[in-house]
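If your schedule permits, I should be very grateful for your opinion on a structural question. I have a record of one protein: its chain in single-letter code and its fold written as C-alpha cells. Kindly check, if you would, that the fold set down in the C-alpha cells agrees with what the sequence suggests. I remain grateful for any guidance, and I place the record below:

***
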Amino acid sequence: MSTYSMRGLWLGAAILVASSLPAFADSTVNVDLTGDAGDKMGMKLDHESVPAGKVTFVVKNDAIATNHEMVVIKLKHKNDKIPMMAGKHRVDEDKLKSMGEVEDLEPGKTGEMSADLKAGEYLLMCNIKGHFEAGMMAHFTVTK
C-alpha cells in the first residue's frame, strides 16, 4: 500500500471517530436586569435551563438610574435558604458558592461572564443593598 493510501486511510478513520463523538456546544444566556429604586426589581432570562459546560451570561442593565449586578450561586438544592447579613439588606455571599459575577453594571450598560457549570441548581441574584429583597433573583438549572 502506498504512503498516500495509508494517509488517506488514517484521515478517513480520524474523521469517522471525530464525527461519532458528541458535540458539546457552549451556551449563552441573556439576562435583563430591571427596576430602579422604589420600583419592582427583577431578572429576566432567555433560558431557564442549559446543558452542563461553558455558559456565558450576557447581562444588560435595563434600569434608568440604578446600578445592578448579577452573581451566579451554586445551590445544593433549589429551595436552599439564602443567608442574609443581619441589618445590611444583603445576601451573605461568604456562606454560598459563587461561580462568578458581573458587578457594578451602570444603567444601560452590558457586561458578560463565563463559567464552566456542572449539572445542578443555581441562583442568579443582584446583591446590591436591598435588591435581592426587592426580587432581583432568578433560579437557573444546568442539566447533564
Helices lie at 3-20. The chain is about 10% helix and 45% strand. The chain has a mean pLDDT of 88. The two ends are 45 Å apart (CA to CA).
